[in-house]
Write a structure and sequence with these properties.
Length: 203
């Protein structure tokens, strides 16, 4: 029975990552930012989906149980703050490339999740990555309708964080003896996804 559950958990994780890669060519171009529905749908783009799920997995795997909320909360706070800066015209060079590289960053964080990286450093990296995502979206602010889009985007972001937490809990419960291997595999897959997304922008 345990072997069956373990196989299903691994398949679920693999399908989630492959699902993100399947739409990798459409990470940002061509989406709208003027309605609640567009906000709800947009985070399912591969760069955001993978990053937000990874934050949930990392938080459960590294932070103490009573502090696991800090990873997702940190991401969302930094996202909102940096989106506000983006609305005011603040930006950085190669912003979209940085967003793609953030997926690689989260992959690296999962690779070393079972080692001795201080949680504060991990949270700091989450702030940096979320800030790139926020600036990218803040700079896309339309003349009207952005409030609804922002609400939808944050709702889906929260759901994806919860999804990552659930995956992390499933790994800890059903793959306890192989937790490091599972996290390492997910980290490596995220790294490959980040390279692919970066390559799509550089092509």
């Amino acid at each position: 029975m345990n072997h069956t559950i373990q196989r299903r958990a691994r398949r679920f994780a693999a399908l989630a990552l492959l699902g993100g890669l399947a739409t990798a060519a459409h990470a940002h171009p061509g989406h709208g930012t003027s309605s609640l529905m567009e906000g709800l749908v947009h985070p399912f783009g591969p760069d955001h989906l993978l990053a937000m799920v990874a934050v949930g997995i990392w938080s459960v795997s590294v932070l103490p149980s009573h502090k696991a909320w800090q990873g997702p909360a940190t991401f969302m706070f930094a996202l909102v703050f940096s989106a506000t800066l983006g609305m005011l015209g603040v930006t950085v060079p190669y912003l979209e490339h940085g967003v793609s590289l953030s997926v690689m960053l989260f992959g690296a964080m999962l690779l070393v999740a079972r080692r001795s990286m201080p949680p504060d450093i991990g949270l700091g990296l989450i702030v940096a990555a979320a800030s790139l995502h926020g600036l990218a979206h803040g700079s896309e602010t339309p003349e009207s309708g952005f409030a609804g889009y922002a609400v939808g985007f944050l709702l889906t972001t929260a759901v994806l964080h919860v999804g990552g937490v659930c995956i992390g809990l499933a790994i800890r419960r059903w793959l306890a003896g192989r937790c490091g291997i599972a996290l390492g595999g997910l980290g490596a897959a995220l790294g490959v996804a980040g390279v692919y997304l970066f390559g799509q922008l550089a092509a």
